[in-house]
Write a structure and sequence with these properties.
5 helices; mainly alpha; about 110 residues; single chain
Length: about 110
């Protein structure tokens, strides 16, 4: 089965998060207060902003309300790229939930 460019980009971003940023499964498991989802929501919401609003917010330089981590980790780029990041963070949360369920079942 071949994947669309969108799917390939999300998978590549998830790999990048793990390999380049060093966010291991063990690290993700520490975010059990839905931080991964909050970050995904921030990127997805920001992708909805108009170009003018995106520019104004980026000029201020602070992440949106609800961003769960230090502002140095807020790195928006383009709406499409922000959606790819959001999707990869959602994937990370699903993986975290699956691991937590496995531990609870063991």
């Amino acid at each position: 089965m071949t994947h669309s460019k969108a799917v390939e980009d999300v998978l590549a971003e998830r790999r990048r998060q793990i390999e380049a940023e060093g966010w291991s499964f063990e690290h993700d498991d520490l975010h059990d207060r839905r931080e991964l989802l909050k970050a995904a929501r921030s990127y997805a919401d920001f992708a909805c902003y108009t170009p003018r609003l995106r520019h104004a917010v980026l000029k201020i330089g602070t992440p949106p309300a609800g961003w769960p981590w230090d502002e140095r980790w807020w790195k928006p780029t383009t709406p499409r790229r922000d959606l790819v990041k959001a999707a990869a963070l959602i994937m990370a949360e699903i993986e975290r939930m699956d691991r937590a369920a496995e531990k609870g079942a063991a």
